[in-house]
C-alpha cells in the first residue's frame, strides 16, 4: 500500500513486505551453508583418500628403522667376500691393533684395561641366537660362569640374544684374574652375526675417572655399541 502526496510517491512498508525479505535472507544463508558443508565434506574425503595411515611399531621385535645417519661414520667397513654382511670396525691406531680374516675382524684393545673385540659371522645351521652364544662361550672359555642374560639384545638393529659371563684364568704369577666376557648374536637369512668382547672385570665407582661407567663392568664395552649397531646383512636398507 502506498500513500501519494503531490509530486511524490512514498511507499509505506507493511509487515508482509518485511516477512518476504526475511525469508529471502534465510534462503540465501541456507544455500551458502549447504555449499560450505558440501565443499568441506569433499575436502575431508579427498584428504582421507590420499593420506596414508601412520606406521605402528611394537618394539621389540619390530623397532622400525634406526636413527637417521650412519651409526659409524668415520670408521672403516669390513665386507665379507661373498657380500653376506658388513660391519664397521675401529681404526687401527695406538688404541687398537686390528686384523681381518675371511669371516670378520679382530681388534685388540691396547689402551686402558685392554681386551679383545671380535666382529664376525658364522652359519647358523638351524641354531637359535641363544644356542650359538652359549656354544661360542663354552668353546672359547669353557670355565666361564654366566652372570646374566642381556635383555632386548640386538645386533645390527635385529633382535637377538646376549649374555655376560665371568672367567678366572690363571696368570703367569699363578694368580687368578677375573675376566668379563660379553657376547651378542643375531640370526637372519641363516647367517649369525656375532659381536664379542673380553677384558678385565672392573668394578666402576666414583673413583673410576671422568668417563661414564660400563653397565657390563667391562671398559671395552664402552666403545662396543656403535660397531654392534653397524652390522648389516645382505639386502638390509641403508642406515
- Beta percentage is 25-35%
Helix-and-strand structural type: alpha+beta
Strand order in the largest sheet = 5-6-7-13-12-11-8
Question: What is the 3D form?
Answer: elongated
Given this structure, which CATH class of the largest domain is correct? Answer: Alpha Beta
CATH topology of the largest domain: Protein Transport Mog1p, Chain A
**N-C termini distance:** 85 Å
Radius of gyration: 36 Å
**Count of individual domains:** 2
What sequence of helices (H) and strands (E) makes up the elements? EEHEEEEEHEEEEEEHE
Number of DSSP helices?
A: 3
Query: What proportion of the residues is helical, as a percent range?
Result: 10-25%
> How many strand elements?
14
Query: Which CATH architecture of the largest domain?
Result: 3-Layer(aba) Sandwich
**pLDDT < 50 stretches:** 1-15
Largest sheet: 7 strands, antiparallel
Q: Average pLDDT, to the nearest integer?
A: 83
Topology:
Blueprint: E1 2-5, E2 8-11, H1 15-50, E3 77-79, E4 85-88, E5 96-100, E6 104-109, E7 115-123, H2 129-140, E8 145-150, E9 154-155, E10 158-159, E11 161-167, E12 179-188, E13 191-200, H3 225-229, E14 232-233
Antiparallel strand pairs: 1-2, 3-4, 4-14, 5-6, 6-7, 7-13, 8-11, 9-10, 11-12, 12-13
Amino acid at each position: 500500500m502506498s500513500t501519494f502526496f503531490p509530486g511524490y510517491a512514498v511507499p509505506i512498508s507493511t509487515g508482509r513486505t518485511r516477512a518476504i525479505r526475511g525469508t529471502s535472507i534465510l534462503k540465501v544463508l541456507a544455500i551458502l551453508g549447504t555449499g560450505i558443508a558440501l565443499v568441506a565434506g569433499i575436502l575431508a574425503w579427498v584428504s582421507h583418500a590420499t593420506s596414508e595411515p601412520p606406521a605402528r611399531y611394537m618394539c621389540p621385535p619390530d623397532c622400525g628403522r634406526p636413527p637417521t645417519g650412519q651409526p659409524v661414520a668415520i670408521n672403516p667397513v669390513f665386507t665379507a667376500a661373498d657380500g653376506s654382511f658388513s660391519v664397521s670396525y675401529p681404526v687401527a691406531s695406538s688404541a687398537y691393533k686390528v686384523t681381518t680374516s675371511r669371516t670378520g675382524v679382530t681388534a685388540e684393545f691396547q689402551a686402558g684395561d685392554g681386551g679383545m673385540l671380535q666382529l664376525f659371522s658364522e652359519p647358523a645351521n638351524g641354531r637359535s641366537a641363544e644356542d650359538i652364544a652359549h656354544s661360542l662361550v663354552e668353546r672359547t672359555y669353557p670355565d666361564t660362569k654366566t652372570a646374566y642374560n642381556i635383555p632386548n639384545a640386538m645386533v645390527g638393529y635385529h633382535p637377538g640374544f646376549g649374555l655376560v659371563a665371568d672367567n678366572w684364568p690363571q696368570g703367569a704369577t699363578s694368580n687368578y684374574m677375573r675376566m668379563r666376557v660379553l657376547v651378542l648374536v643375531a640370526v637372519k637369512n641363516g647367517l649369525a652375526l656375532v659381536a664379542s668382547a673380553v677384558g678385565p672385570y672392573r668394578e666402576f665407582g666414583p673413583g673410576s675417572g671422568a668417563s661414564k661407567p660400563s653397565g657390563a663392568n667391562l671398559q671395552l664395552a664402552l666403545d662396543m655399541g656403535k660397531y654392534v649397531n653397524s652390522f648389516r646383512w645382505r639386502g638390509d636398507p641403508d642406515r
